[in-house]
Design a protein that fits this description.
Number of domains: 2
Shape: globular
CATH topology of the largest domain: 2,3-Dihydroxybiphenyl 1,2-Dioxygenase, domain 1
Oligomer: single chain
Radius of gyration: 15 Å
Strand content: 25-35%
Mean pLDDT: 95
Helix content: 10-25%
């Protein structure tokens, strides 16, 4: 037996605001019923088939390293351009793992401290 991943859920303090950050990052649109102050906010996969990203309010703050994180691959720019853009959106640098030969990745954190990685684009891997 198998199962599909319907949502990737992120626990957070402010679902609507964090969903806005990730909507800018991914291009995934907000669910039409999302509103500020709600306990959940959902980003819908653009193709309607992939998993959505669900942000759910929890009372406790983040206390350690993520056990699961997202690895992002830029689609219309290079890794370093994507990193610069994410920093302007409110991400923070956690760890720079870029190498002199262009390989490697960058670990960033979203506005609530959830870590994620930015890898090279397909064109950079070619």
């Amino acid at each position: 037996m198998t199962a599909l991943i319907r949502h990737i859920t992120v626990d957070c303090a402010d679902p609507y605001t964090l969903a806005g950050f990730w909507s800018e990052v991914t291009g995934y649109p907000r669910h039409p019923s999302d509103e500020p102050g709600a306990d959940q906010a959902l980003l819908v996969a653009p193709d309607g088939e992939g998993p959505g990203v669900l942000f759910s309010r929890v009372p406790e703050g983040k206390s350690g390293k993520n056990r699961v994180h997202l690895d992002l691959q830029p689609t219309d720019c290079k890794r370093d351009e994507q990193v610069d853009h994410l920093l302007t959106l409110g991400a923070t640098m956690v760890s720079d793992q870029r190498n002199a030969d262009g390989t490697g990745w960058v670990v960033l954190a979203d506005p609530e401290g959830n870590e994620f990685c930015v890898e090279r684009s397909l064109s950079e891997r070619a």
